[in-house]
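User:
Hi there, any thoughts?
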Amino acid sequence: MTEAETKTADLIASAAEATAGTVRSEAVATRQMIASPVTEAAADIGVIGLAVMGENLILNMASRGYTVAAFNRTASRVDEFVAGRARGLTILGADDLPTFISLLKSPRKVMLMVKAGPPVDAFIDMLAPLLERGDIIIDGGNTHFPDTVRRERALAEHGILFVGAGVSGGEEER
């Protein structure tokens, strides 16, 4: 091998090592970002539920300049979303509800993008103790209106506001 060929081979090897190191560093930084709690409330709104509608709503909000906290009952979905489609955007993932709530600016605004019915009640039951007077829960599912009225009345007793927004019909089955 000539001296020029040796230098070229060394240059290529160095570039390959640098690229591999960068990829490893970015992967570690992404895991640390997901695993490390944010120490101050930074999110304008939080969305619970990372199915088709929830993910796309979060991406839409972030594209409009909002910082959005994301939570899903399956923590791995949050990690995948933050490291994937949400990478580099103003989206903060949380693996548990107390962390999720701590990411939100006051008054806290939480949008539920979960299946209508018992799942909405279950999340409200888990959220209510973590919220304060003046905080807002928005139900984005197509809930039957008597359930919305019941939830609004129950939360009003604690000073928590409730909005039945009905923006999601869920994913279309094929």
About this structure: The helical segments are 3-35, 52-63, 75-83, 97-102, 118-127, 145-156. Residues 19-38 have pLDDT under 50 and may be disordered.
